[in-house]
Design goal:
With 180 residues, the chain is an alpha+beta fold. Helices cover 19% and strands 39% of the residues. Strands 1, 2, 3, 4, 5, 6, 7, 8 and 9 form a nine-stranded antiparallel sheet that branches.
């Protein structure tokens, strides 16, 4: 398994670990199911599936926790294509359509750019586990453990143009935040 230390957005300024390997295993069922789906659509002779093969309808039970990010390798920006409803609530708003430009972003935006670029550079499914500051209830913010899987998608099966992901939270007094 490969591991590198990268800044993880929302993790109290801590450096988290991003892990990758071809046989990566997630700890929590929702992220593991999304990873298994990615593996099922990946051609056996190519490193990554195409963005068009990734069908959100196939992942309907986990849609609340899924996100899609378009990668513009020419200018280094990222566009949030889709944010699942549970993620929008947890992070305090729906970021769908937001463009993350590395030249103009805040510190948090810069951390997000570094994380997405690490996923692109690695070129395999990656996972982070960290504590994130989220808003699970209106007006209440708290640190919770989360597991996030990042899945590269490539138009030509090599050049990554989109990242699909699933983020699952564990709250001490509640079960995992997921749609099922």
């Amino acid at each position: 398994m490969g591991k590198i230390k990268v800044p993880v957005p929302g993790a109290r300024g801590e450096t988290g670990t991003i892990e990758w390997e071809q046989d990566l295993v997630c700890k929590w069922q929702p992220t593991e199911r999304v990873l298994q789906y990615w593996r099922s659509i990946k051609p056996s002779n190519k490193p990554n599936p195409s963005p068009w093969a990734f069908d959100l309808l196939e992942l309907a039970p986990h849609l609340n926790n899924i996100f899609l990010v378009d990668c513009d390798r020419e200018d280094g920006s990222f566009r949030i294509r889709f944010v699942g409803p549970a993620l929008a609530v947890a992070h305090g708003g729906d970021g769908t359509g937001l463009v993350i430009d590395p030249k103009t972003e805040s510190k948090l935006g810069q951390l997000t750019v570094q994380l997405y670029n690490a996923v692109i550079d690695i070129g395999y499914p990656c996972i982070t586990r960290a504590r994130a500051l989220v808003t699970p209830r209106k007006g209440a913010r708290e640190f919770v453990d989360n597991e996030t899987i990042f899945l590269p998608l490539a138009e030509d099966h090599v050049k990554i143009t989109r990242i699909a992901g699933c983020q699952t939270f564990a709250f001490e007094d509640r079960p995992l935040v997921t749609s099922n």
